[in-house]
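Tokens as discussed.
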């Protein structure tokens, strides 16, 4: 039983597409110095994105004294850090919007937050915005599988996963696993090679370690799964990775995950109006 998912990816109608404004906003937010006025101009060109951000800002979570109807004012109120996260999530949520697996979406946000935090201590220079986005998208292959073959994803894959593990189950059903599928998707969207490899190898430490962003995404996934043991690969966090992160012990990863989870819970409340 094997479904040709590679052909499905090559059919453009099957592959979700970023809006032009969304892609431009993502590119701008990956730069070290972001001009919020220029960012506002880009966002304004996408009515749906603008409406989502204004709806989120005016939600009860922010407890504003008056409604904000101007995008520039909304971005200034949010601040650059919050704006970055909101735009990242708003421009990528459509990838997860059809998923019934809310756990995958929560894991994506948690991974993005962990990756951003780890990038700040890492001995390699990794842009924290790239880290956040790579963490957010690393499991996008799973959502594509669910979109294309929902019955197989929800009814067949779970039982097969119990027998042989997630990656082997996907290989048995589709001839490739969600990491390779995700990498192909990012390549189709013209993400650069380091992003494609980071997603493609996030369960393959030997290959992931060749690329600092890939190493970071691999350990991010491991950290997000510290308590549930669902990392889908047998890789162990070793001294090499702890040193790469500029940390002293694995216990620090547990602390980072716990702090990230608190931030994610707050952030998701803010995002309810946006999503």
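Sequence:
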């Amino acid at each position: 039983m094997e479904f040709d998912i590679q052909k499905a990816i090559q059919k453009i109608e099957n592959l979700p597409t970023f809006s032009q404004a969304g892609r431009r906003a993502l590119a701008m937010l990956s730069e070290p110095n972001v001009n919020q006025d220029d960012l506002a101009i880009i966002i304004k060109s996408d009515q749906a994105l603008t409406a989502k951000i204004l709806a989120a800002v005016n939600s009860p979570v922010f407890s504003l004294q008056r409604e904000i109807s101007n995008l520039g004012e909304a971005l200034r109120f949010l601040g650059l850090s919050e704006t970055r996260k909101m735009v990242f999530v708003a421009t990528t949520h459509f990838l997860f919007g059809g998923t019934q697996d809310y756990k995958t979406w929560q894991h994506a946000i948690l991974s993005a937050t962990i990756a951003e935090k780890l990038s700040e201590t890492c001995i390699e220079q990794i842009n924290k915005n790239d880290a956040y986005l790579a963490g957010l998208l690393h499991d996008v292959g799973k959502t594509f599988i669910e979109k294309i073959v929902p019955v197989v994803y929800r009814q067949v894959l779970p039982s097969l996963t119990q027998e042989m593990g997630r990656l082997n189950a996907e290989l048995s059903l589709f001839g490739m696993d969600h990491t390779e599928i995700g990498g192909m998707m990012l390549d189709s969207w013209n993400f650069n090679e380091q992003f494609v490899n980071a997603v493609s190898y996030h369960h393959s430490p030997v290959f992931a370690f060749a690329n600092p962003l890939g190493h970071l995404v691999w350990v991010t996934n491991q950290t997000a799964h510290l308590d549930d043991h669902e990392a889908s690969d047998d890789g162990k966090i070793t001294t090499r990775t702890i040193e790469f992160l500029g940390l002293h012990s694995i216990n620090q990863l547990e602390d980072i995950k716990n702090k990230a989870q608190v931030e994610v819970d707050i952030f998701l409340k803010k995002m309810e109006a946006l999503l």
